[in-house]
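Support request from a user on the community tier.

User writes: "When I paste my structure tokens into the form, the page sometimes reloads and wipes my input. The last time it worked, I copied everything first. Here is what I submitted, just in case something in the input itself triggers the reload:"
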């Protein structure tokens, strides 16, 4: 890993969210000089705090914290120069973002005003073709995983799961607006409901075919839901799907990625 931080433009992208629990934990480490104390005050586990720091460190390309040996309190943890730069950049981005949103909020009402809540999501750059605004209907916390039921429109609920640490770092809660993401290559589209047991455990969503390629060899296929959402996936060779035909998209809960919508 490099001794110099990533390009500031890259870090700006990393810190583009309105609120980022990872940055909050980094800031708390700077204040108290202890990862365990930072985790406790942030309301997350020690493991989740380390996950946050590891993720930021990987993205920045250089260590953001370092151990301090000895001293009056027996040592602790402090930010490196790169870690301090990340906090300074996060503060500048937050100020700039607030100024922009305040300027647009003053002129927006109703639906345009509601759309401002997804400004951060609009800047999300990812290869995942499926991106659905969703609301967390229920959360069931297990020993290692948190199982979610998400509402993506008036008639469709989908299941997803995240680790407990990820749920803590995203501050997930029932009623929260999020984004549900899925790679197109992880979505299987068929003419009928799949018969194998694994597929039956997936999220099955019926829609109308609006794009379909290479019926003989299989390829990308898109279906349109009554709410206007479009799901992009792949159909197997010989799928026989035609435009305007009903089709079923299969999305296993394990392929759903949760991101913050604001």
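"...and here is what came back when it finally went through:"
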């Amino acid at each position: 890993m490099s001794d110099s931080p990533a390009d500031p433009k890259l870090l700006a992208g990393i810190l583009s969210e309105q609120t980022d629990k990872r940055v909050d934990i980094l800031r708390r480490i700077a204040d108290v000089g202890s990862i365990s104390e930072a985790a406790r005050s942030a309301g997350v586990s020690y493991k989740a705090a380390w996950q946050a720091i590891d993720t930021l460190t990987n993205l920045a390309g250089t260590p953001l914290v370092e151990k301090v040996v000895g001293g009056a309190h027996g040592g602790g943890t402090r930010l490196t120069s790169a870690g301090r730069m990340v906090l300074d950049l996060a503060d500048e981005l937050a100020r700039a973002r607030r100024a922009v949103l305040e300027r647009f909020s003053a002129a927006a009402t109703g639906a345009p005003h509601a759309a401002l809540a997804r400004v951060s999501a609009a800047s999300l750059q990812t290869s995942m073709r499926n991106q659905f605004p969703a609301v967390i209907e229920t959360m069931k916390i297990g020993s290692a995983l948190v199982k979610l039921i998400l509402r993506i429109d008036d008639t469709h609920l989908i299941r997803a799961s995240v680790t407990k640490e990820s749920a803590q770092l995203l501050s997930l809660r029932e009623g929260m607006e999020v984004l549900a993401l899925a790679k197109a290559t992880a979505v299987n589209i068929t003419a009928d409901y799949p018969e194998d047991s694994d597929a039956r455990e997936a999220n099955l969503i019926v829609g109308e075919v609006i794009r379909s390629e290479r019926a003989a060899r299989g390829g990308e296929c898109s279906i349109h839901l009554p709410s206007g959402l479009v799901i992009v996936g792949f159909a197997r060779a010989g799928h026989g799907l035609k435009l305007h035909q009903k089709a079923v998209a299969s999305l296993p809960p394990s392929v759903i990625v949760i991101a913050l919508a604001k």
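Agent notes: The reload is a front-end session timeout and is unrelated to the input. The radius of gyration is 22 Å. Confidence is low (pLDDT under 50) at residues 111-117. Escalated to web team.
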